[in-house]
């Protein structure tokens, strides 16, 4: 690819991103777009038995404690006893860093704080894979 080809490609990207107001319009008519062929989803798992379904239903009703951890800090007991209203405890995280989502003390995801109807919530940004969670249990 030569310099002119590189410049042409850069100009096309700039036009597509709306950076060049003099560039020609790149609008696409939705009727001109073809649907991508998709493979049919297949459920290869064998159906579960009535006994297995009963056991699964029992497990699904077990309550767990979910918590969000903003950060951690270690302080001496002397400093802990000196804390009072208005004291600030420095945490090990920087502002804007994601929170840890813990279930029964085990990390399962990372997320960010959101406010919905004047209540705090958390939007999951990264869920730890089952393989990684199992490794941490060992």
Automatic annotation (TrEMBL):
Under the heading SUPFAM superfamilies, the entry gives:
Surface presentation of antigens (SPOA)
Q: Where in the cell is it found?
A: Cell membrane; Bacterial flagellum basal body
How does the protein associate with the membrane?
Peripheral membrane protein
The record's similarity note reads:
Belongs to the FliN/MopA/SpaO family.
Q: Taxonomic lineage of this organism?
A: Bacteria, Pseudomonadati, Pseudomonadota, Gammaproteobacteria, Vibrionales
Q: What keywords are annotated for this sequence in UniProt?
A: Bacterial flagellum, Cell membrane, Cell projection, Chemotaxis, Cilium, Flagellar rotation, Flagellum, Membrane
Q: Which organism is it from?
A: Vibrio gelatinilyticus
The name this protein goes by in its record: Flagellar motor switch protein FliN
Gene3D superfamilies noted in UniProt: SpoA-like
Q: Does the keyword Membrane apply?
A: yes
Kindly give the InterPro entries that the UniProt entry links to this protein: FliN (IPR012826), FliN-like_C (IPR001543), FliN/MopA/SpaO (IPR051469), FliN_T3SS_HrcQb (IPR001172), SpoA-like_sf (IPR036429)
Residue ranges of domain Flagellar motor switch protein FliN-like C-terminal in the record: 58-128
An example of a GO molecular function for this protein is: cytoskeletal motor activity
């Amino acid at each position: 690819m030569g310099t002119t080809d590189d410049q042409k490609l850069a100009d096309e990207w700039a036009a597509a991103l709306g950076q060049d107001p003099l560039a020609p319009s790149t609008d696409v008519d939705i009727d001109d777009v073809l649907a991508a062929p998709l493979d049919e989803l297949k459920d290869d798992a064998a159906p579960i038995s009535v006994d297995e379904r009963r056991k699964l239903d029992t497990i699904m009703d077990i309550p767990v404690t979910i918590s969000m951890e903003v950060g951690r800090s270690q302080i001496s007991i002397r400093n802990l006893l000196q804390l009072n209203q208005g004291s600030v405890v420095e945490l090990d995280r920087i502002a804007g860093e994601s929170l840890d989502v813990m279930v029964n003390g085990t990390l399962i995801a990372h997320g960010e704080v959101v406010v919905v109807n004047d209540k705090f919530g958390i939007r999951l940004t990264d869920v730890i894979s089952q393989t990684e969670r199992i490794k941490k249990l060992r």
